[in-house]
Design goal:
about 300 residues, alpha+beta, Jelly Rolls, 11 helices
Length: about 300
């Protein structure tokens, strides 16, 4: 089935310096990135994490929600999230790209990434304005990462990994919940693992019992924990992820509405249409027309 207009998927190797032998890490300026790859200004996704430090006025589109910003701002993108940063006038800055494998190194699970409130957060915006006293140390840490990466000296991976952890620990302090974000507790770990499992398996698994079996817990326990941690039922998390994928395909693929329903394992196109209308208040075709007009995406 042809899908020539799927959402672009970029790989981390495309962001690395040609002369770098580091796997799983890159840092570059926005200007350099867009000069080499103008298509990055369009909505896209990837399987790694990104952190932006930008100066100026712009808007971050993050899974169909727009977050305007003005002045020094941090932005965050987690694996699988469709996003782009759109300038309003001049916009400068740089961004870090890294894989979880690089960040974790040889550290045992759970990953320290679970402790930070700015990745995979359903409740917090993906942009964080910086105040005057926060700008200097943030710029300094980004500059140190850039210098270490460009030099490519022995041991660079360990220094970059340690510097990332320092940067993230300091950023986490800027959130009201503090650096711990209670995400190292067992319930928070389970809710996070469930979210990652949904991200990985939602195309072939829709039953809560399947996810409970995968995570080696009972369905009732999983649902209780997810509701406590996210204020949504586990079933709603699954449905919202499927709804998000439907939105992505309606905007970026050349599949018909019926084909998108089948792709998401709905046996009846009318059932998919009812599912979509319950989640958005409009039919898939109306949504497709409106979102393509908004982002000036031509029909296939």
């Amino acid at each position: 089935m042809a899908r020539s207009r799927d959402i672009p998927l970029f790989h981390l190797r495309e962001y690395r310096l040609p002369e770098s032998d580091l796997n799983g890490f890159s840092i570059e300026t926005l200007a350099s990135s867009l000069l080499k790859h103008p298509q990055r200004s369009h909505p896209h996704y990837h399987h790694f994490f990104q952190v932006f430090l930008v100066f100026g006025k712009g808007c971050m589109m993050h899974d169909f929600v727009e977050y305007p910003f003005s002045g020094p701002t941090l932005g965050f993108a987690s694996p699988g999230q469709v996003h782009t940063v759109l300038p309003v006038g001049s916009l400068r800055g740089s961004f870090i790209s890294f894989s979880q494998e690089f960040f974790d190194g040889d550290a045992p699970p759970p990953s320290r990434l679970l402790a930070y409130p700015f990745f995979f957060s359903p409740d917090l915006p993906p942009v964080l304005p910086l105040r005057d006293g926060e700008i200097s140390w943030c710029k300094r840490l980004f500059a140190e990462l850039q210098q270490e990466y460009a030099a490519g000296l022995p041991g660079a991976d360990e220094i970059l990994r340690a510097s990332l952890r320092i940067l993230f620990a300091r950023i986490a302090r800027l959130y009201p919940s503090g650096p711990a974000h209670h995400a190292t507790s067992r319930p928070a770990q389970l809710a996070y693992r469930f979210r990652l499992a949904v991200e990985t398996h939602f195309r072939e698994m829709s039953a809560l019992s399947d996810y409970a079996a995968l995570l080696k817990v009972t369905p009732n326990h999983l649902n209780d924990v997810v509701r406590e941690e996210t204020r949504q039922s586990a079933g709603e998390v699954i449905r919202q992820r499927m709804l998000l994928e439907a939105k992505r395909l309606l905007l970026h693929s050349n599949l018909s509405v019926s084909e998108i329903g089948y792709h998401l394992r709905f046996k009846d196109p009318s059932y998919f249409a009812r599912f979509f209308r319950r989640g958005t208040g409009e039919s898939p075709s109306v949504f497709r027309s409106g979102i393509r007009e908004k982002y000036q995406t031509p029909s296939p």
